Amino acid sequence: MAETKAAQSSWTDERVEKLLGTLLLTGVMISGLVVLIGGGLYLLRYGRDPVHYENFDPQQASLHGIVEVGKFALRGDGRAIIEIGLLLLIATPMMRVVFSMVAFALEKDRLYVVLTLIVLVILLLSLLGRVT
Amino acid sequence: MLLGSIVAGLLGSLTGLGGGVVIVPLLVLVFHVNVKYAIGASLVSVIATSSGAAAAYVREGYSNIRMGMFLEIATTLGALLGASLATRLPAGILAVVFGAVLIVSAGLSLQHVDPVSTSDPPGHLETLLKLDSAYPTPEGLEEYHVRRIPAGFAMMFGAGTLSGLLGTGSGAFKVLAMDQIMRVPFKVSTTTSNFMIGVTAAAGVGVYLRRGFVVPGLAMPVILGVLAGSMIGTRLLVRMETRWLRIAFAIVIAALGVEMIYGGISGRF
């Protein structure tokens, strides 16, 4: 009885691993492509301006808020499109964690559903939280 | 800069140290980019390479996903701590810490001690977490045991902190935790570490993004370059003898480390 159960769960694990691999690769490819497109547009527009990154100024860095990024991206702003690529890139490992959680839930592995959920909460906290 | 990033990605994947350890000194020392922007761009590129490489390894069944998931609690918490420290510390101090870690990593990349597998009966925690697993070898599946979980967990927290603080994957430290402390076979520890790096880096990047460490104009060539370099690297790795490359690279890394420390102390950044 115990043996068949173990065999079943290892079969599921294997399938999960294959799907995870595909998910990761797709995420990286898509975000890489978006960054490339944004980069092209960015260079067309700002390519000849000299850049200065010697001094750190948090205000200069990024557009603020997802709505603003979306608005600029629709207008074809290279910087905003690169930012969307970056967000997709961060979303890739996050999706991976969500996917693992679903897989553990399907395997009825409650302990690991909880452990995975903790990782997900930490990730969301880092992206949205004000604590840090 | 794109070219430099390609080289960084190539060297990083060939030596197993990851692109971050090359890209940060390159940006800081050669292109005079502020340390904070450099680690921001580097950590973003770390997500890209780790996810790309992990995709390949996970499919082959080497990574231990349960162990990875469990240890990610430690590494992501560490990354949060590290990244928020990075937002508070001055650039000069970051450069000095970075330099010191480079020198240690150079040393680590040279010594390779095979982990000794144990056959001790599993303790309470080990049974609860179901971490023991098996991995494919030419002679079929081979089982292995995972041990000393609390010590490994603590070490992972440290690795995560360094990752968030310095914008690197800190794969060398993750591997160290897994094979020297937890006694996991080398193939499993390197691939599982790769699998964890992406999630750890994502936790750090979340903080970086909100604190303005990530500038699109800089992140773009770095991501694309490192990604291209590491893709070429993984292909080459299969048919290359990397021993000499490792030694040469370790020397370069150590030299960069000294340079970063010197620059940090002399207040150049």
Record keyword descriptors for this entry.
heterodimer; A: 132 residues; mainly alpha; 80% helix; disordered N terminus; B: 269 residues; two-stranded antiparallel sheet; 11 helices; 2 strands; 74% helix
The class by helix and strand makeup of chain A works out as: mainly alpha
Helix percentage of chain A: over 70%
Distance between the termini of chain B: 19 Å
Rg over C-alpha atoms of chain A, rounded to the nearest angstrom: 20 Å
Please give the order of strands in the largest beta sheet of chain B.
1-2
Q: What is the element string of chain A, with H for helices and E for strands?
A: HHHHH
Strand content of chain B: under 5%
Q: Number of helix segments of chain B? A: 11
Instruction: Please describe the biggest sheet of chain A, giving its number of strands, its sense, and whether it closes into a barrel.
Output: none
- Overall mean pLDDT of chain A stands at 77
Query: Can you give the mean pLDDT of chain B?
Result: 80
Number of domains of chain B: 1
Query: Largest interface, by Cβ-Cβ below 8 angstroms: which chains and how many residues each?
Result: A-B, 60 and 62 residues
The unreliable regions of chain A are: 1-9
H/I helix tally of chain A: 5
Task: Count the domains of chain A.
Answer: 1
How would the global form of chain A be characterised? elongated
Radius of gyration of chain B, whole Å: 18 Å
Overall, the morphology of chain B is globular
Helix/strand order of chain B, N-terminal first: HHHHHHEEHHHHH
Strand content of chain A: under 5%
